[in-house]
Amino acid sequence: MSTWVPVPEGSGFGVNNLPYGVFSQRGELPRVGVAIGELVLDLAELANAGLLADRRWFASGSLNGFMAAGRTVWQPTRDRLITLLTDMSYRDEVEPCLSPVADVDLHMPFEVSDYVDFYSSREHATNLGRILRPGSEPLLPNWSHLPVGYHGRAGSVVPSGTPVVRPSGQRRGDQGPVFGPTTKLDVEAELGFVVGTPSAQGQPVPTSGFRDHVFGFVLVNDWSARDIQAWEYQPLGPFLSKSFATSISPWVVPVEALDAAHVPPPEQDPEPLPYLRCAEPWGLDVTLEISINGHVVSRPPFAGMYWTPPQQLAHTTVNGAWLRTGDLLASGTVSGAERDERGSLIELTWNGNEPLELPDGTTRAFLEDGDTVRISATATASDITPIGFGDVVGTVYPSPS
Ligand SMILES: O=C(O)/C=C/C(=O)CC(=O)CC(=O)O
Ligand SMILES: [Ca+2]
Ligand SMILES: [Mg+2]
């Protein structure tokens, strides 16, 4: 499959990807677009020109309408876009609908309904257990029987580029709690998936229903204040330590685009209960990359995640809780077995005890004001053109207090 659009080598946005996002030209209203190479294809304009069936989903400041329309709309739209971008005979009509991504503003791609965050990397969960609960078993007995998760704060999910203001809160002190700006500001590199088609109240979605309900994947940075977290989290889990900002990437990679990147996930022992079994191999051969101020500090491998996206979806709905368009379910921090595969600073620096040395001569235990964190990811099966997720970026601003 080759496109007439010039796609630079290694772009990650080839015609096999076509991620959806929301963008605006200077002075114009946001609308839906698709990334190809270093360009964005304006779907509202394409529909205006009579080249796409329906305009109302695309002349919109969010993907929610299109996502709610379901797979019977997503699939023909994707097929049509591939035709328009590969068949030379459409070039003259389609070209006016392309603009350089560098010339547009990218927005929040969808409105988040609910936000769930899992804890599905065995390596991450083991590291956090060792750091936060030394002297006890790092993994609690439930961990290998269900994908542990918590409901996060949907309203604090922000698009890439949004400044992250250093949060204040309580942390443990020698003579009782201390209040002030966090001294342990951290990141968590994750992939998230977003629900398109809702489900009915009381009707669990099986693992085999993943494709019917899920629209696509984004990158997630679950910013975390580790000192606030360590003091507040027992027994109900993280609250203010993670609700001040969660950043997502602007491009939503369609579920189908990743079909070529599936790999068998790690073997699950003990065998999960029947509702968590999954016939398809839903490991994803995606490598994330975390950089601080332009220096790569880690490359976490998503293929090693113990609990897979369909298992997370089935677990979320097994009690009859229903899905809504815009529900965002994040994987949990992606960490591999090697030090340079860990998905958070608390792991990379072992709670600040082993600071990272950056090539610019500075060291980091946790984030400093002014630091810019960039997380990117690519699916790179050997026989496919790499599929990029773009990136999610955030700069730390000082506490206002
Ligand atoms: O082990 C803990 O108490 C806490 C762990 C986390 O902070 C992780 C969390 O947000 C879930 C994840 O990203 O894996
Ligand atoms: Ca997290
Ligand atoms: Mg909520």
Automatic annotation (TrEMBL):
Binding, Ca(2+): D117, E188, E190, D222
Catalytic EC class: hydrolase
InterPro entries membership: Fumarylacetoacetase, Fumarylacetoacetase-like_C, Fumarylacetoacetase_C_sf, Fumarylacetoacetase_N, Fumarylacetoacetase_N_sf
Fumarylacetoacetase-like C-terminal domain location: 116-395
Binding site for Mg(2+): D222, K242, T246
EC number: 3.7.1.2
One biological process term in Gene Ontology: L-phenylalanine catabolic process
Positions with a binding annotation for substrate: Y119, R133, Q229, Y233, T333
Glycoprotein found in the keyword field: no
Cofactor: Mg(2+); Ca(2+)
Keywords annotated in UniProt: Calcium, Hydrolase, Magnesium, Metal-binding, Phenylalanine catabolism, Tyrosine catabolism
Keyword Protease: no
GO molecular function, one term: metal ion binding
Domain of life the protein comes from: Bacteria
Fumarylacetoacetase N-terminal domain location: 16-109
Active site: H124
Involved pathway(s): Amino-acid degradation; L-phenylalanine degradation; acetoacetate and fumarate from L-phenylalanine: step 6/6
Pfam families named among the record's database cross-references: FAA_hydrolase, FAA_hydrolase_N
NCBIfam families reported in the protein's UniProt record: fum_ac_acetase
Stated name of the protein: fumarylacetoacetase
Organism of provenance: Actinoallomurus bryophytorum
